[in-house]
Amino acid sequence: MLPFRILTILLVGLGVYFFLLQELLAAVTSIVLLGGVITYGVTSPRSSLLCPLQWKLQDSKSVALTFDDGPDPKVTPIVLDLLKEHDIKGTFFLIGKEANKNIELVKRIVNEGHTLGNHSFNHAFATNLFSYSKLRGDITCASDALKQTCGQSPLRFRPPMGLKNPRVAKVAKELGLIVTTWSLKYTKDSTLEGGDIILFHDGYYLFGNSRPQDDTPALLSRAIQQIKTQQLNTVALS
Ligand SMILES: [Zn+2]
Fold first, then answer.
1. CA of 60 to the centre of ligand 1 (A)
2. How far is CA 38 from the centre of its chain?
3. Residues 6+ away with beta carbon under 8 Å from 26
4. Which of 50, 108, 115, 162 is 20 to 30 A from 182 in CA distance terms?
5. Which of the residues 59, 68, 72, 189 is marked catalytic?
6. What residues contact 25, with CB distance under 8 A and at least 6 apart?
7. From ligand 1's centre to the CA of 226, what distance in Å?
8. Same domain flag for 192 and 148
9. What digits encode the pLDDT tens for the residues 105-164?
10. Rounded to the nearest whole angstrom, what is the distance from the C-alpha of residue 210 to the centroid of ligand 1?
11. Running DSSP on this structure, what letter comes out for residue 219?
12. 26 with 112, same domain?
């Protein structure tokens, strides 16, 4: 956070300085640069500029499989079957509202040894623009929903779309949640490496609607083969 504040002051200061010198091009360049830095901080899953976070494992011989936007009644059971078949534990970043609709599935996830993460209650498109109190309320509701459903309180928060800002950092810290993003969003062309936190979706949530992410089981099978070939361990995030 400190380097970002220093950078902001520096770039705004430069902008004002050039503006006063009537060097308008340089002044505009400074402000555009600041906009670029902020955009990077908000959108990059690897940037801790606006919000301290974990996006990679320390252990370079392990990977973590993570699943967002569930639980989904169609795809999540298939994912769980695959993980069980290969004796792999993963981490499910659940949407609170969906957890309330699929209570037995949440219980199954926990009973089979996986860990839960908080992926907000509503997965609202504008979560990153929420006020402090609205954001805190949404994240708290999601944690409460998971706790009431299965007795497990999440220790991590993954912001919807991975977008974050200093308010997210403040609320997560107050609620004792580690903000967690990813190093690899897995696709059919992906190669993985030790230390990766890998993002899959068992559900897909957009504009208030949840739908199954049907290609995830095939992607997961492919990733598991790569993990075995490379002799990597798998860990659930705790
Ligand atoms: Zn999501």
1. 26
2. 18
3. 14, 18
4. 108
5. 68
6. none
7. 25
8. yes
9. 999 999 999 999 999 999 988 888 889 999 999 999 999 999 998 888 999 999 999 999
10. 10
11. H
12. no
From ligand 1's centre to the CA of 200, what distance in Å?
A: 10
Report the distance separating Cα 220 and Cα 211, nearest Å. Answer: 18
For residue 68, indicate whether it is catalytic.
yes
Number of folded domains in the chain?
2
205: amino acid identity, one letter = Y
Distances in whole angstroms, Cα of residue 165 to Cα of each of 129, 136, 179, 193, 226: 9, 13, 11, 28, 34
| 180 in any annotated domain | yes
Q: How far is CA 50 from the centre of its chain?
A: 15
Active site includes 202? no
Nearest Cα neighbor of 231 from 62, 57, 65, 56 is 62
Check 138, 196, 201, 202 and give the catalytic one. 201
Query: How far away, in angstroms, is 33 Cα from ligand 1 center?
Result: 29
Segment-wise mean pLDDT, segments of 10 residues, the chain, 238 residues: 70 76 76 83 88 95 97 96 97 96 95 97 87 95 93 94 92 97 96 97 84 93 97 95
Domain co-membership, 198 together with 166: yes
CATH value at residue 196: 3.20.20.370
Handedness of CA 21, 24, 30, 34 (dihedral sign): positive
Q: pTM for this one?
A: 0.88
